[in-house]
Amino acid sequence: MFSLSKSVVGLDLGSRFIKAAQLKMNKKGYLLERCGIITIPPELIVDGSIIDAPRVVEAIRELLKTSKIKAKHVALSVSGHSSVIVKRISLPSMSEEEIDEAVKLEAEQYVPFDISDVNLDFQILGTQEDEEHIDVLIVAVKKDKIDEYVFTVKEAGLKPVVVDIDAFALGNIYEINYEIESD
After folding, report:
1. pLDDT digits (tens, 9 = 90+) for 116-159
2. Does one domain contain both 120 and 136?
């Protein structure tokens, strides 16, 4: 099991650069231990899809070596217009178990590929003003997209512990670093 007391590497696999930041949790928050960036040819990763995994693995290894990053646990994020779906929906108020089933049914309407080919998750955002409906955020990512990222980082000798979506990863960083004022 992964522990927050261990160092973790945030890894960003972009179309022009691969970036890594090794973080460790301490009493004051997160401490940046090491970081680095490496330029890659644009044909290695296109629209968030890894086209040439062996060369991406090689680039990750080189980045870790030159940045002196030793941690093996990695958090990464995925993107891509054709393989990541995020949709906010409204559902009647219901139990957790009912929500789980309702989300699956609703997702079938919005996901343009077979629902069995995606990893599906959701977050309850809150109750609407009428208190008879809830807002739910649905996220679906093609399984092969996650598999290609996980395979690539494992081949580079890393252990993926978190896979998130780019936009949510940025939101989480903001939340951690800045106090959000409530209305």
Report:
1. 999 999 988 888 878 889 999 999 999 999 999 999 999 999 99
2. yes
Cα–Cα distances in Å, from 79 out to 48, 87, 106, 118?
Answer: 5, 15, 22, 14
Q: Which neighbouring-strand residues pair with 139? A: 86, 121
User: What does each C-alpha distance from 32 to 36, 37, 66, 129 come to in angstroms?
Assistant: 11, 14, 16, 42
Q: What is the pTM of this model?
A: 0.80
Per the structure, the count of domains in the chain is 2
DSSP 8-state symbol, 117: G
Contact 99, 136 (CB under 8 A): yes
143, 103 in Cβ contact below 8 A?
Answer: no
Residue at 66 is within a domain: yes
